Amino acid sequence: MPSSHLTRQVFRRLLANEPIVYRGCLRRQAYSSVASVGGPQHRRRQNDSFAIRMPQRRTFFNLGMFRKPRRERKEADMDPGIEKMMELEKLQRMRARPPPQEEIKKALRDFIYSKQDSRTAMEDTQARLVLLSLKHCLESVGEGSEALHQESQDPVFATKFYKALTYTLGRPPRQVSDAHLELARYLFELLRIGNAVLARGTATAYCKIWCYAGSPNKALELLQSIDFPMPKASMSSELDADEHQEEGEAIESSMNQQQTPTSDPVTPVLLHTLRTFVSMRDSSGVERTLAIMQDRGVGESYHTAACLVEMAIVQGDAFRAQRHWKDFTRLAFAELDQSRNSPSGLSSVSSNQKQVIDKLLQWCMKVGHLDLGHEVVRDVMQDNPPKPIWDAVFVWAAGTGKGVDEVGRMFDVMESSNDGIPPDDWRNADAATINGLVELAISKDDPYMAERFIALGRERGIEPDAKTLVLQMEYRLSVNDIDGALTAYKNLQYMDLSGDEDLPVVNRLIVALSSSKRHDFDTVMNVVADLSDRQARFDPLTTSTLALLHLNRDEIHDVIDLLNTHAYHYSSTERTSIRNALVSYCLDMETPTSRAWDAYSIIRDVFDELPREPRTELMSSFFRRQRPDMAVHVFNHMRTHSRADTIPTIDTYISAFLGTARLRDLESLEVVHNQLKLDFNINITTPLRNALIIAYTACSRPRKALGFWDDIVASREGPSYNSLHIALRACEKSPFGDLKAKEIWEKLRKMNVDLDSTMWASYVAALAGNGNVAAACKTVEDADADRELDVDPFVLGSLFAGAPGFDRQGDVEAWARAKYPREWADLEKLGCEEDEAGTRAFYIDRSVTP
């Protein structure tokens, strides 16, 4: 091959970023011949890269086999169907073609049934997506009742689906939002006519959502406006049984765990509304709810009496508390007599009685109503009460001054009362007894008392159970005893946890370990791994703390995996808390720039809903870090976003222009300016043009900057005072800018614009900026003589700063010392700085803003 041809081929491949291969390699030709035996022969162009078909490689030492495999990124963990609904939302926002309706319907079914199976609440972000998807599906078939119940044709509109949806919506979420209320209202209006069961379910869910949102008055108005149909006898008994069960599960109260079966479908909702009024201390709402219950024929019960006891407690009315306690005791004992043959009913009444006694005695201890507390104890101790009541009495005794040893002797008294009682009903102190006493010690912030009660249990052969260790972790963490809490946690690993009651305190332990400087990273990760193995959800604070911990160790993949696992299961408020922690990490100037950029990249990927304001702050922070390229990337990400609350506004453009001006980065300025030219959502205003003048002046393009001044003059809005200062600054830096400054000044004088000393300072600095120092000094003298200007240090400092070069500044200094010695002396007191060329600038604020 001729050398010239070889050189041309080499340079072509270098420019095309292709490998350089010598086609005359005998070994490669042999392999090529062997590989092509029996196969079709295809002609190949002369300049085709042979390496694409048969790349060069080592045939003996395959060193690549020892490389560490590349880590795969973990996919986002979302509830079934959520990703498809998110896709629908984005496409609708972009006004693009949505996914096929069958896929949206399947996503809705998958999501709702998974929520029903897991018995978890629907968060606000999920409720918004469900409402959007449901409306999208119903638009194709119409919203008439005929289309809603064609179960055989379209299962998305089946009764089973709507029943599961209303059940899920009725469960209390962590945060009630407008999306929950809108979805409940939409379902209520959609299903109020037709299927009686669906009408009842949607109305019940709507009322519950109002109560969860803290508006029980709305729920009461809704209940009064609805004529609830009674279930027909032809309906499936299994369906009604399931509905009652789900209503009981969805109504979570501090007073009872299971509803009394009733033929009136409104009674459970009224009880829920009543409890909401009680928690809000709304006595008028309680009275109205009780009146409605009486009108519907709902007689008094221990449920309503318990609510009235709690209402008296929150109002601090001891007399009413005593009276309602008597009513509750009477009704509860009557219910116990009726439930003797029903173990579940008996357990429910006993549990409610225990809760009321606990609340009443704790309130008496807190406010000092000891007489009422002693009366309650006497009432419950008239007969040999069940063991849970004994536990409440022990807590009362410890709270009113009994020592640990005295409480131990009371255990003996309880156990001595077992004579004549079947062994299955014996009252013996157990871990539940100790746990109640430990909870009392925690409420009194007395960890020493808590430890003594645990020691008392061990002396009597009562070993701590899982709840005891959880409580032990709580009070040890409350006094920052991290080592003690960690020891309790290790003991907890050997316990059989039936639920997730330990998750809150374990999350607190993880946060404490992460913040502690005495515990290493492996200790934290051991606890984290345990929760991960259990597939438990981390608290938002835990997630944000671990994310920052990994970021500080440059473990970017771990941060992404952590957020992809948990972030999509939080409510919008919880996601915001995590997002804000990461944004604060980026904005912290102590954070290295590389880590700040990694954190921003993660935020952009996981928290797509990040609004405009924090994105603008992130952009400005990268400008402060002297990284205009990163700042422009942040701006472009906003520019290409589809959300209306994220795309740039005029203020965003102004911030970007000012950032490029501070760094004098012309390339970044032109990128942002070109984006502005293409942005049809932005109407150019005077402040925006002011920012352009500032930016181009700072980037040594003052003549182009003055072109925007002409645009301002020609616009309907016209210039502002800031525009005048900014334009004169551009004249100060522009060649022959003194001529433009004189033109502007003459127009201002003709229009009788009020010209203060700062405006005079900008004008004379513009004259001096082009070397016309003598004219600038004469202008100051004439204005001073005509009493148009009071010469002050700012005017002299501006004139001095505008003079170019060391010699011209010396001329200004000599003139000022002679004409205005006192003002010059005041200026010198402010101090000055000097650059490499010897040019000085006094410490006066000459900055301008759009």
Automatic annotation (TrEMBL):
Residues 239-250 have a biased composition (Acidic residues). Residues 253-265 have a biased composition (Polar residues). Residues 235-266 are annotated as: Disordered. It comes from the Eukaryota. Gene3D superfamilies: Tetratricopeptide repeat domain (1.25.40.10). This is Complex I intermediate-associated protein 84, mitochondrial. The lineage of its organism: Eukaryota, Fungi, Dikarya, Ascomycota, Pezizomycotina.
